[in-house]
Specification:
With 553 residues, this protein is an alpha+beta fold. The chain folds into three domains: 209 residues, no CATH class; 191 residues, Sulfite Oxidase, Chain A, domain 2; 107 residues, Immunoglobulin-like (Sandwich), CATH 2.60.40.650. The chain has twelve helices and 21 strands. A five-stranded mixed sheet has the order 4-3-12-7-8. Strands 5, 6, 9, 10 and 11 form a five-stranded antiparallel sheet that branches. Strand 7 and strand 8 form a beta hairpin. The structure holds ligand MTE and molybdenum atom. The site of the ligand Nc1nc2c(c(=O)[nH]1)N[C@H]1C(S)=C(S)[C@@H](COP(=O)(O)O)O[C@H]1N2 has 18 residues, from loops.
Length: 553
């Protein structure tokens, strides 16, 4: 090949398009070009993943998820050593380290990719799967968190295939000269910016950069939105609660005096989360409005300032999800700060004949709540605080509903922005449209919490403990049964209120062998939990919870 023909007017591009491979004699595009292709493809993968993560939940971004996982999974020794060595710079250092690795692996993916042997693509996909697993297994994550990384790596593979394809492509001119596939002696032709394949490569590289810039900017904008709401929450001042509106204090004897039992109040970070939102709705307190309309005497619109001018109340209420299986953990108790829903409704004046409040969240989810449940004097709140903090984003920031006695799907609308007073024969809501019961009162339930499942126990006295709930009615009795022996009364801890769960315990004189314990509760109406096992659809699971233990002498 003539050296002269390789000199392009643009100078720096004047590298040979193909260099013969020493071992195979096959010709390859220059190392730098292939490395750049790999870097661009990796960049596309990350930027697209980041943008999609921004649209779903910015914490699912591939890079951050991997970094967080490294932080959590690193053996304590390693973690402490790095923190010692780097002081508080350990997180930036980790991110820098990950970046260096990504640059190296990105370049490598370009170097090893061949039109007919997509090794580099495989590397990007493996990276993608690692990132997706890291994101999906984050404590607050779920399967949906794998989506950004997987789609991102698919985009990266596409970019790599196109870029490497262009680098290796035969130009029409060289093909015309008989420069066939894999012909080691072939002349690649002049490597100037005017070369069709070089032009194609440059165009593709430019497009990749544009994709990286656009996706990066989108991801950043969406991430900023989430950051704004987090900052809004950090700066938010919850309304003060006058002592007459405070929740009655929690006596010490609401929980059994035994180690490892379930706490009476559930910490916010441990509180179950159920909603249909792929991306947590982001609404600041300044943007929040509640419109009350429909069958009312006058329409009312309330903003954050209007809301918190009212007298706030604090109430402890146990929330439960209708999807909770027997023995499940979709139940939790928190102290809620908020404003009586009945008072707010009264300002709009519901018209006679109305029997439903259709509430809508900022992302369009709806719940239909029986109006009488909101007006009968129970502690139905439009809540802004959870255990003394502003609502966490996942739990409805800045405003949600809490209605004792009703499952969440008919009552506990998070990120609520709209109230329509209406009728059950005119309106329906998200889950009732999908076959779930219309009214959703909470069924009596009881659960064994300790010892842990499949625990191996020593013979002798063992404390068995758990919880039971029947919001609005209250728990009057809990019984325990070992194998086929008669039912025995468990010891009930103090009842805080009929709207909260009630803890129980029972000391079992465990004898060697494999034993199954059952539990059943009786509510204050005298109704004993039925043994009949039913799945949660359509109005809540029924049946007795049991646990099997091996007692080893
Ligand atoms: N906007 C919105 N609110 C919602 C839901 C939802 O999907 N979207 N799910 C409801 C259901 S089914 C339950 S059980 C409770 C759960 O509240 P938590 O996530 O704070 O525990 O929220 C309710 N509020
Ligand atoms: Mo639920």
């Amino acid at each position: 090949m003539g050296v002269g023909s390789e000199l392009s007017p643009t100078g720096p591009t004047a590298a040979p398009l193909r260099t013969p491979d020493v071992k195979t004699g096959q010709q390859h595009p220059p190392v730098a070009a292939r490395a750049i292709a790999g870097l661009l493809a990796t960049g596309v993968a990350l930027a697209v993943g980041h943008a999609i993560a921004g649209a779903l939940d910015s914490r699912s971004s591939p890079f951050l998820a991997v970094a967080d996982t490294v932080v959590d999974r690193a053996p304590a020794v390693v973690r402490e050593a790095t923190i010692d060595a780097l002081g508080t710079a350990d997180k930036p250092a980790l991110l820098l380290g990950l970046s260096v690795i990504l640059v190296a692996v990105g370049a490598l993916s370009g170097l090893v990719e061949r039109p007919h042997r997509p090794t580099g693509s495989a590397i990007i996909l493996v990276l993608g799967v690692v990132g997706a697993l890291a994101a999906a297994t984050r404590p607050t994550g779920g399967p949906a968190w794998a989506v950004p990384t997987l789609l991102g790596s698919a985009a990266g593979v596409l970019a790599l295939r196109l870029l490497i394809g262009a680098l290796y492509a035969e130009s029409p001119r060289s093909r015309a000269q008989g420069d066939a596939d894999g012909d080691a002696d072939g002349d690649a032709g002049p490597v100037t910016a005017e070369h069709p394949d070089r032009r194609r490569f440059l165009a593709l590289a430019g497009s990749s950069l544009a994709v990286i810039a656009a996706a990066g900017a989108t991801g950043a904008a969406l991430g900023r939105r989430a950051a704004d709401v987090l900052a809004d929450r950090t700066g938010l001042r919850l309304p003060a609660v006058l002592s007459r509106n405070a929740a009655p204090p929690v006596p010490a004897d609401v929980v059994p005096d035994a180690p490892g039992v379930t706490g009476f109040l559930t910490r916010n970070e441990d509180f179950y989360r159920i909603d249909t939102a792929l991306r947590v709705p982001t609404i600041t307190s300044a943007d929040w409005r509640l419109r009350i309309h429909g069958m009312v005497e006058r329409e009312v619109e309330i903003d954050w300032g209007d809301l918190v001018r009212r007298e706030a109340q604090e109430r402890i209420v146990t929330l439960t999800c209708v999807s909770n299986e027997v023995g499940g953990d979709l139940v939790g108790t928190a102290s809620w700060t908020g404003f009586p829903i009945a008072d707010l409704l009264a300002e709009a004046g519901p018209l006679p004949g109305a029997d439903m409040l259709l509430s809508t969240s900022v992302d369009g989810w709806t719940a239909g709540t029986p109006l009488d449940a909101l007006l009968d004097g129970r502690d139905a709140l439009l809540a802004v605080g959870m255990n003394g903090d502003p609502l966490p984003l996942d739990h409805g920031y800045p405003v949600r509903q809490v209605v004792p006695g009703l499952y969440g799907y008919v009552s506990a609308t998070k990120w609520v922005v709209d109230w329509e007073v209406t009728r059950f024969d005119r309106a329906s809501a998200y889950w009732t449209d999908r076959g779930w019961g219309e009214k959703g009162p909470i069924r009596t339930a009881s659960r064994i919490d300790r010892p842990a499942p499949l625990a191996e126990l020593a013979p002798g006295p063992v404390v068995v403990a758990g919880t039971a709930w029947a919001q609005r009615r209250g728990i009057d009795r809990v019984e325990v049964r070992v194998d086929d022996e008669p039912w025995q009364d468990a010891r009930l801890s103090a009842e805080y209120s009929v709207d909260t769960w009630r803890m129980w315990s029972w000391t079992w004189d465990a004898e060697p062998g494999l034993h199954t314990l059952h539990v059943r509760a009786t509510d204050s109406t005298g109704e004993v939990q039925t043994e009949t096992r039913r799945t949660p659809v359509p109005d809540g699971a029924t049946g007795w919870h049991n646990r099997t233990f091996r007692v080893v002498a």
